[in-house]
Amino acid sequence: MLKDFRLEWRQRAALNGMLLYVGSTVFVCYLSFSLRGGIPPAPAWNALFWIILLFSAVNAVAKGFLQESRGRMLYYYTLVRPQAVILAKIAYNALLLLGLALAGLGLYLLILGNPVQNVPLFVGNVALGALGFASTLTLVSGIAAKATNSNTLMAVLGFPLMIPMLLLLIKVSKNALDGLEFEASQSSLLTLVALNMIVAAVSYLLFPFLWRS
Amino acid sequence: MKKNWWKALTVVLLLYTGVAGLLVPVPRLAILNETIRNLYFHVPMWFGMTFILIASVYYSIRYLRNPTPELDIQSYESARIGILMGVVGLATGSIWARYTWGTWWTNDPKLNGAAIAMLIYGAYLVLRSSFTDEQQRARISAIYNIFAFATAMPLFYILPRLTDSLHPGAGGNPAFAKYDLDDAMRAVFYPAVIGWTLLAFWLAQVASRISLLKLKVYEKQLA
């Protein structure tokens, strides 16, 4: 599994592209808000941040399976168990999204102001979100890669599946923005963790069947 | 007749639901008034949808263990009937909301959750239509079906319970499970749930039979 992870890591050309993607999106947002004198109000700030994260996550993870050549897939197939592949992919995507999200958050805070009152909660929430996006989108991108019009399919399949997670994430980050105490968002966070675990477990169980083709 | 008793039962139960649901007296509750009768039509849709989707997932799991076109068709047709029940559920709820809340749609966790779950299953239909190879289509849509079920059910049964909602049964609004469902209503509601659920299974069975026959005709033409 470690070996597989390293294989993933070697083709990290996508990473720089994605960083640039997030960076330029944030900058475009900054420019469009600066027309009306700088910082957007807190709800807009929150919504914008999660939309940026959502789109960059879909783009980043979609590359994972779509860029794989048939030959390399076959090569993995002879080397490792499918469970190891999906775990490695999820781990890699989680790290990738975590890096992207934190870098994006840093830039976002820098140029669009910082209305967050409970920063540790907000950052923890972003990290949970990155993990959740990774585990949902990895299987979806595996499914989409098999179909003919995979890029459209990635969005069509991915967005509805991510909405439950996104709703919870936005709620918790709103709590963090308003500086509510931890108890207010505890149950949402627990549900989020449970949802992540369900999705990851289902991916783990289903991926071997997907892999056989 | 011995095998088909449940179909007769469906007809009897639904006739009973239609007649008794509209005629039997209901408790007078503020705001709800006579619209409480929607309980016999709207709520059983979601029960039926859940059961038929569970059946669909069951067929999908069996397909992954033992791939046969029959199981694929059964899983697909069950999911389609589940989507139909969900859409009818949304429609009956929307009409009810128009006369109770004064609007077709509000920004409510239960409503949004149901709508998103329907989107998830809409994606299932799109996914199915984007494959040309039949075996691959069957396997991958079975995988997605299981995955979709695991993410859609929290939308119905977990997330709305975490927040307040306008919907009956949440935030102190009257619902069927609590104080306001008297015995007369129970006597109609439970048969209604069973009747609509059986109807969903009946529809799925007929639909899969038609698809199977089409498949057989097609294979004969090829041979």
Question: Structural class, from secondary structure content of chain A?
Answer: mainly alpha
Give the low-pLDDT segments of chain A: none
**Helical residues, percent of chain A:** over 70%
Low-pLDDT stretches of chain B are: none
Distance between the termini of chain B: 36 Å
Q: How many structural domains in the coordinates of chain A?
A: 1
**Helix-strand pattern of chain A:** HHHHHHHH
**What is the global morphology of chain B?**
globular
Q: What is the helix/strand order of chain B?
A: HHHHHHH
The helix content of chain B, as a percent range, equals: over 70%
Radius of gyration of chain A: 18 Å
Oligomer: heterodimer
Total helix count of chain A? 8
Structural class based on helices, strands and sheet pairing of chain B: mainly alpha
Shape of chain A: globular
Strand content of chain A: under 5%
Attribute tags:
heterodimer, A: 213 residues, 8 helices, B: 223 residues, mainly alpha, 0% strand
Walk me through the structure.
The complex is a heterodimer of chains A (213) and B (223). With 213 residues, chain A is mainly alpha-helical. Helices cover 86% and strands 0% of the residues of chain A. Chain A has eight helices and no strands. The mean pLDDT of chain A is 78. Helices cover 74% and strands 0% of the residues of chain B. Chain B is built from seven helices and no strands. Chain B is mostly helical and 223 residues long. The radius of gyration of chain B is 19 Å and the shape is globular. Chain B has a domain at 5-20 and 36-105 and 168-222. The mean pLDDT of chain B is 82. The interface between A and B is medium-sized, with 31 and 31 residues. Chain B: It is found in: Membrane. Chain B: Pfam families: Cytochrom_C_asm (PF01578). Chain B: This is Heme exporter protein C. Chain B: It is a multi-pass membrane protein.
